[in-house]
Design goal:
Length: 135
């Protein structure tokens, strides 16, 4: 079983095509849509977690590529500026997935991008704007 958080970029011509339901039906993949920005006749963007058997997952990813969907890892879009961060811990209290954790021994905030769901709550909470999300 494999599970990955990815960002899907849909060109305008695919907005009305049932891409995600095809992943579920034909490739037996489960998905959790964490964010979707879709405008008719324009490019769409979806942050999604896809889970399933590794062989089915690979086939599903190939299908997305053949359909013209651009795929990128979610962790490439979530960044923390370590020099800007003051380790105040405000982001830690707001993070729903514990992607941001305060280390009591070192008094530092650690960011685990693999736990992040791109909810962007940390961005709003951070007083020094050390967290960024760019899709």
């Amino acid at each position: 079983m494999i599970s990955k958080k990815i960002v899907l970029h849909f060109p305008a011509g695919l907005i009305n095509k049932p891409i995600i339901s095809t992943l579920a039906r034909e490739y037996k993949l489960e998905f959790n849509i964490m964010k979707a920005l879709i405008t008719p006749d324009e490019e769409g963007l979806m942050v999604i977690e896809i889970s399933g058997d590794e062989k089915d997952f690979d086939k599903g990813i190939k299908y997305l590529g053949k359909e013209g969907v651009r795929i990128q890892s979610l962790s490439k879009d979530i960044k923390r500026n370590d020099t800007r961060c003051t380790n105040c811990g405000v982001c830690v209290t707001i993070c729903p997935t514990q992607a941001l954790v305060y280390d009591k021994e070192t008094h530092e905030v650690h960011f685990y991008d693999t736990k992040c769901i791109a909810c962007e709550l940390c961005i709003k909470a951070c007083p020094v704007r050390a967290m960024t999300v760019k899709f």
